[in-house]
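Researcher: I'd like a structural prediction for the single chain below. Treat it as a standalone chain; there are no partners to consider.
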Amino acid sequence: MTAQFAISPQAGRRTPVTDAVALIHIALNDERSLRDAATDFYRQARLGRRAVAVVAGPINDLAARCEQIGLGAVIAAPHAPELVHEPVVLVPGAVAARELDGPPSTPLRVAIAGCGVVGGGLYQRLSADPRFEVTGVLVRALERTRTPQPGARLLVTRTDDLLAAHPDVILDCLSDGPAGLALTRRALAEGVSVISANKQAIGASLSELSGLAETHDAAFAFSAAVGGGAPVIETLLRARRHGPIARIEGVLNGTVNFLLNQLATGSTFSDALADARDKGFAEEDPTADLQGLDASTKITILADLAWGAAPSLSVVEALSPGAALPAGPVRQIARADARSCSVTFEPVSDDTLFAELPDEWNALRVICEDGSVFTCRGRGAGRWPTAESVWADLIDLLEARES
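Model: Treating it as a single chain, here is the predicted structure.
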């Protein structure tokens, strides 16, 4: 059960805008109920709502799951209203148990393109949820060992075979931009919905792909393409609904943010990069991250959504072992207005939104023309935060089909 309470921003203040608080009652009775509860919190965050939950069951496990996907959660005693400003507040309490949603009469048929960090996480979750049927997993090499390992009957190496199984939706978790774009174009043209985490595939083709989806009555969602587990796109769209946008600024690359944090503690560049790879924050080839291409693609996507067209990039700075960085806390800041975009390294000691970003976290600030400010923070890389963003899009699609 969820109740929504409106909260109005104070007039005349340049302050982040919060639409509502969601009051949720949760009974945790198995692993799926724990995952679904965290997903409910994440979907509330995408809508700009804080979640206050009365929880029966292993509340510490739920707090840990929230942390895993990048949602700050605190466990509060009842009657502690000062803690409502946390993204998620968990309050121990008695809640009537409810049955989890069983499989619909026809499960949603899901194909996964790519079975690496994100795709593998999604396969693990999909295969344990009776609401979904995995119809195929597109990979480069059949013989490669994966964790988790899909069944041999599901693995395919050709797009033709992935589509031949007639999925309702394809999850694009590929790291190859051109391959992802070709797959997305073909799927949408055939009326198959696409949820994409592949920013290189969609970055320059949003209008085309959105048009294809509309023409062929398919869904097209791409929340995970920008911000990983941070609800960056949803925050921008909320700001756009509020009024015209004047400026966008954000830390949009989790790999680079992790490296900057490590360098600030005295780590060498090579050690920091090796650590980022070990933790799953950096690809084996991090060129797109280090050259600023990843951040520039993301700010281009956001600008396109904000103003209907992406302005040109004025400057994109790279991070290298010999790069001269400003003193103090430094962030890779992607900025855009209606005239230009840029990606630069800037000191942020006086900016609490950006200065206090740990590890691989991302953050976004959107300033509207009337002075209202919308912000969000969250984990910008890693299996579970990014997979959670894809999953939230998938649940949106499932609920739309069942409504």
